[in-house]
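Entry 14. Two folds queued back to back today. First construct below, sequence then C-alpha cells.
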Amino acid sequence: MIPNQHNAGAGGHQPAVFRMAVLDTDLDHIFPSSVLPPLWAKLVVGLVAIVCFARSYDGDFVFDDSEAIVNNKDLQAETPLGDLWHHDFWGSRLSSNTSHKSYRPLTVLTFRINYYLSGGFHPVGFHVVNILLHGGISVLMVDVFSVLFGGLQYTSKGRRLHLAPRASLLAALLFAVHPVHTECVAGVVGRADLLCALFFLLSFLGYCKAFRESNKEGTYSSTFWVLLSIFLGAVSMLCKEQGITVLGLNAVFDILVIGKFNVLEIVQKVLHKDKSLESLGMLRNGGLLFRMTLLTSGGAGMLYVRWRIMGTGPPAFTEVDNPASFADGMLVRAVNYNYYYSLNAWLLLCPWWLCFDWSMGCIPLIKSVSDWRVIALAALWFCLIGLICQALCSEDGHKRRILTLGLGFLVIPFLPASNLFFRVGFVVAERVLYLPSVGYCVLLTFGFGALSKHTKKKKLIAAVVLGILLINMLRCVVRSGQWRSEEQLFRSALSVCPLNAKVHYNIGKNLADKGNQTAAIRYYREAVRLNPKYVHAMNNLGNILKERNELQEAEELLSLAVRIQPDFAAAWMNLGIVQNSLKRFEAAEQSYRMAIKHRRKYPDCYYNLGRLYADLNRHVDALNAWRNATMLKPEHSLAWNNMIILLDNTGNLAQAEAVGREALELIPNDHSLMFSLANVLGKSQKYKESEALFLKAIKANPNAASYHGNLAVLYHRWGHLDLAKKHYEISLQLDPMASGTKENYGLLRRKLELMQKKDV
C-alpha cells in the first residue's frame, strides 16, 4: 500500500501503479529484491560506470584534445578569464571567419581549472574528471529512469516514490556500460557532452519537481522550479549547444505526460469538428500555457543571445566534413541524411564498430535507389513509425508514456546534429549519441519487460540481458584502451573505415611525429589517393619530402594544395621554403607574401621571409621581417637570434647587443640567446659579462660543443689560457670533427709550448 500519494500525470491513478508493479515484477528474474533500494542501485551503477572506463585514466591527450586543450591559450593564466566568453571552444575569437562557432565557455573553464590544479598539461587529472562525471551522470540516471518508468508520485512529505526500481536499475546499467560513450569519457574533449548531459538531466529533474503538489483544480506548478529548470538548460547549453533541447523535452513531458494529452483523441475530435475538446480546459486549469510560455520565452532568449554571440553567422564547413550537405538535389541529401540516422541507430544497437572519425569517404554517398543501403532507411523508419504509432495510439496510458518519453529522449537531443536546421561539421559522431542513448535504454528496457511478460523463457531473457551487459562492459574496457594513445586510436579505425582519408592522414602524422618518415609517407600518399583534394595531407607530405631533399615533388604537391585551397596560408609558406631551397627566390618571396595575405598574423612566415632576404643580402628587409615576427610572437627565439647574428656579422655590435638584451628580457631562460649575446659582448671586449652568459648557457645546455668552443675562444682572447684549454678539450670531446675548434686548439697549444720554452 502506498500512503498519502500526490498524483501527477498518467502515473497518478491506481491502475497505473498496478501496471508499473507488474512491469517491475517481470524483471525480478534479472535483479533480485536485495539490490533494489535506490541507494544500492546508485552505488552499483556508479561503480560499474567507473570500472568500464577506468582504463583510460592514464591516457594521453589524443586527437582533438591537442587543439582544444594543449594548444588552447584560454587554459593558461596569461589569458584573462573574460576572454573565455568571447572565444570558441578551440580558443579562437568567435568573430573570426575561421571560428567553428562552438561556444562552450563553461567546459573550457573546467579545463582551465584542471590545468591549474594539475600544474600544467598532465592528462591524468583531465581523464579522472571525465570518468567521475560519467559515473555521476550514470547515478543520476537511476532517478531519471525512475521518473520515466514509474511516473511522478509523491508521499505526503513530498518525497517521490520509486515505483519501478528494477526497470530503472536495468536501464541505468545499460546506459552506464554503453560502448558508444567511450569517445565522451576517454577523450578529454568529450567533457563538453558530459557536462551538457549532467545539467540537461538536472534541468529535467528540476522540471519534474514543479509537480510535487496538487490541489482541487489540478496540478500546481511551482514557478521557481520551472525557472530553475530553464536556468539549468542555459548552463547545459553553455557546456555544449545540444543542451537547449532540454526545454523541448520538458515541454513534451509536460504536455503528453503531466497534461495527459492524448494526441490521437485530439486529432479525432478535430477531424470530426467536435467543439467540446475538453482537453483544452486543462491548458487553463493546469497552468500548462503559463509553463509553455516560460519555456518558449527562455528558449527564444537563449537562441537570441547565442546568435548574437556568434557574430559573423553560422560556421563554414567544407564538403569533406559533411559530403551529404553538399550533394546535388534535395532528394539525394534527404536520402543520405536518413542513412546517417540509421547508422547512428545501429551504433546504439550494436556498438562494435566504433571509429574516432567517420568523414572523408568513410561513408560513400547514396546516389541511386538501387544502392542496397536504402534498406537501412526503410528499416529505420519502419521501426520509428511503429514506435510512434504505439506511443500515440495505444490504449495503455502507461505504455504511451514510456514510449513517448523514450522517443523524446532519443530524438530531441539528436536534433542539433540532424542537419535539419543547419549544416553540421561531421557525418557521424559517436559523442552526440551520449544523451540520445538515454531514450534507447528506455525503449530497450521496456522491450525486455514486454518480452518477459509474454514468454515463459524468463531465464533465457535474463541470460540475454546479462550477456549484453557483460559484452558491453568488455567492449568499453577494450575501447578505452584504444583511446589511451593516438597510435592505438588511429590504427583501430583502419578496420572500421579503411576508405577514410583522415584515418590514414592521422596515422601518417603520428608516425612523422615519432620520426618514422618512410612509413608516414606511405600513409600520406594513401590519404591523398583516397581524397585527391586533401590539402592538409599534401602539405604534410610536401614537408617530409622537403626535409628529405625531394624538392621537385614537394613543390608539385604544395602548388597543387594552394590551387585547391588558395587561402591555405601554411601551404603557401611551405611552398616558399621549398622554392627558396631551389634558389627560385622571386617565386619564394611571392609565396611568402601570399601566406601573409591570407594570415596577417603569421610570425613563422615573417621569419622565413627574413631568411630569404638574408640569403639575398637584403639585410634591412631581413631585419624588418624578423622584427615583425617578434612583434607578433615576442617569444620567437629564432627570429631574435637571427637578428643578433646578422647585426653581429655586419659589424653593428652596439645594435646587436641592444637587440640581444631586449630578447633576453622577454625570454630570460633561452640559452641560444645567451650564447649569441655572449659572442657579441666578447667581441666588444666585455669579457666578464660575456663569460657569465656563456657559463649560464652551458649550464642550461651542457652538451653543446659550440658553447664550450666559443667560451674557450673568449678565454683565449682574454688571456685565461688554462680555462681556454679546458673548454677547447670539452668541445672537441663533444664534437671531434669541429675544424674551427681544432685549429684554435692547435694555436693555443703552440702558444703554450712557446711560453714553456721561454720559461725554461
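Second construct, same run, same settings:
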Amino acid sequence: MEHDQEQEACVEQTQRYCVQRPIYNQELLQGQLHKRQRTSQTLGQRIAHSCRCSSKKAKSHLYSFLPILKWLPRYPVKEYLLGDIISGISTGVMQLPQGLAYALLAAVPPVFGLYSSFYPVFLYTFFGTSKHISIGTFAVVSMMVGSVAVREVPDEIISLDSNSTNTTDVLEYYSARDSKRVQVAVALAFLSGIIQLCLGFLRFGFLSIYLTEPLVRGFTTAAAVHVFTSQLKYLLGIKTSRYSGPLSVVYSIAAVLSKITTTNIAALIVGLTCIVLLLIGKEINLRFKKKLPVPIPMEIIVVIIGTGVSYGMNLNESYKVDVVGNIPQGLRAPAVPEIQLIPAVFVDAVAIAIVGFSMAVSMAKIFALKHGYTIDGNQELIALGICNSVGSFFQTISITCSMSRSLVQESTGGKTQIAGTLSAVMVLLVIVAIGYLFEPLPQTVLAAIVMVNLKGMLKQFGDVMHFWRTSKIELAIWVAAFVASLFLGLDYGLLTAVTFAMITVIYRTQSPEYRILGQIPNTDIYCDVEEYEEVKEYPGIKIFQANTSLYFANSESYTRALKKKTGVDPGALLKARRKAQKRHAREIKAANEHRKKAVLKLVSPSTNDVEASVKHEIASDDLPVNGKLEDSSVQDMSPDEHEHFVEPKSSIHSLILDFTPVNFVDSVGAKTLKSIIKEYKEVGVCVCIASCSGPVMNELTRLNFFDKSVTRELLFHSIHDAVLACQVKDGSAAQADFHL
C-alpha cells in the first residue's frame, strides 16, 4: 500500500513542471533571438538550379516518370507471381462483361469497351504508382461520356425516312450514328487525357482535395441514379431516345413510362433472371469471403449463360430481343482523333478529367495506406493522361479506376500491376480470337450487370443519416451534389457541387465560434469560461478568441462579436459619456438661471445687501473651472445609457486577443485590428495580442501595422505572458512571483 502511494506521488511529481522566465512580448523576445542568415536567390539562379542536370537527378526523374523501372527489377517472382496470376485472371473475367456493358453507357458499340479495357490497362502498368487499382471502363465516367455523345449526336441528326422499312437503311442509320458518337467519345478521351497530362506536369495533383468525400459520394450516388435510369430501356426491351443535359433523368423515366406497354417480356425475364443470379453470387462471395480461394466470377458466368441461351433459342429473331451484334475481330489501326470536335467538348473533358482522377487517386490512397506504400498524385495524373490520350488513337473511351474490379484485384492476392497486365491480355485474346462468340449476347444481360454493380453506390443513400448525426454542413454538401448532379446533369452538377463546397468554406470563416477564455487555477492553461466550471476570469481582464483568420469577409463580424462577448462597446460608452456631460451642463445652466431670477425678484432696502446676496448665491454654485465643466460621473447616467455595455468602465482595464487560431490577416483585417486598439484605448482599455504566429507577424509588418501608437510591445508570446503583463501594468500584481 505504501509502495503504491509512493508510486502515485512519484507519477504526480513527474507530471509537473516549473518555468521561471521574464514576461515576453515580441519586442523583448525578438531582441534576444538571432535570425538565421538566408541567402536569397534571384529568379535566374532558381531557374538555372532547376534546369541543372546530373546523373542522379536524371535517374530520379526517369524512375518517377516510369515507376515500373523501379519495382520490376526487384520483383520477387516466387512470392508475388502466383497471386498476381490468380488476381489477373479474376479481374480479367470481370473486365470482359463490364467493358461490354459500360460501352452501352458511353453510347458506343460494345467492342469499344473492350478496346478501353486493353490499351489503358497495359499503359498504366508502366506509368502508374498504385499496385492494386484496376484501370478501365467505369460506370460514372462512361455515363458522362455517353451524355456528351448523345448531346452532340442525337438520334435525329442522322436523316432516315420515317416510312422506310428497308433493313439496310435502318442498319446504315445506326452505323452512321454510332460512328459519329465514337468520334465524339474518342475526342473526349483525347482531350481529357491532355488536360490530365498538363495538370500532372504542372504539379496540380492537389486538386483532388477540393472534391471532398461528401461531394464525391453525393455525386456518384446521383450518377448511379442516372446509370440505373438509362439501363431501364435495355432491361425492359423498350425503344426510346436517350437524353442528356438538365432534367435528362426526368425525361428518360417519362419516356420509359410512356412506352411501358411495349415491354419485351422475353428481355425482361432474361434480365431479371440475370439480376437474381448476380445478387446471389455477390452475396455468396461476401458471406464466404474467407473460405473461397477466389470470388465466384458470376458476371462472366451470366454472360456465357446468356450468350448460350440467346444463341440456342434464337432470342433476336424469335422474340425480338436486342443483342450486342457485330464485334469486329482484331485490333483497329491507330487514327488521329477528330480535333475539330474539341471546342464543343472542352468543358465536359475538364469535368471528366477531374472526376476520373479523383476516383483513381482516392482508391489508390486507400490501398496504399492498407499495404504500407505511397503513391504520387502528380504521377497518377500523368499516368491517367497517357492512358486516355494515347489510348484515344486506338479508339478508346475515357477511363479511370473501377471500384469493384479494384477490390477484386486486391482481395484475390494481387501484389503489383502484373495482375492488371494479365487481365489486359485476357481481353486481348477475346478481341483477336473469340470476340464473335459474344455477338448473340442480349443487351438486357449487360443492363443487369450494370445495375447490380450499382448496388454499392446506391447504398450511399445511407450517408444522409450518417452526416445528419455528424455534420450538417457535410450533409448540405452531399445533398447539393446529389440534387445538382441529378437534375442539372453530371457536368453542371459537379461544377455546382464544387462551388457550393467552396461557399461552405467561406460560410465557416464568416460564422466562427467566439469565446471568452479564463484560467484553470494555478496553471498557464486557458479555456472557455462558459464550458468549464473550474475556469475563472482575471478581474479587469477579458481574453477573447475567435477560431478563424481575420480578413475582409469576417472583420465586421469579428468586431461585433468582440463588443458583445466582452460587454464593452467603446462607441456606446463614449456616446453615453458625451450625453451625460451635456445633460449635466444643461442642469447647471438651468440652475444658475433659476437662482439669478430668484435673486432679482427679491426686494431689498439696501443695494449692498442685494449685491452681497447675489455674490453669495453665485459662490455657492458649481461653476465651470477654467472654462471647463467638471467631469460627470457615469453613475449619474440613466439605465437607458447603460444598456450598451454590461460592466462599468472601471471593471475592465485590459483586453487580450488570442491569435492562436489565426492563420492570416489581410489589409482589411489589419485596419480593423488597429481600429479596435485605438477605440478601446480611448475608453481606457489596453488591447494586447497573444500567441501571434511568425507568418502572421510578417504579414502585419508588410501591411505597415506597427507605428508609434501600435508597437510590438502589445504582442505577447503566450496568453499567460499577456495576462501577467496586464496585471503588472494595472499594479495588481507588481510584487507577484510569476512562476508556475
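Quick look at the second one. Confidence is low (pLDDT under 50) at residues 159-163, 610-648, 733-740. Residues 514-570+650-735 form a domain with the Transcription Regulator spoIIAA fold (CATH 3.30.750.24).
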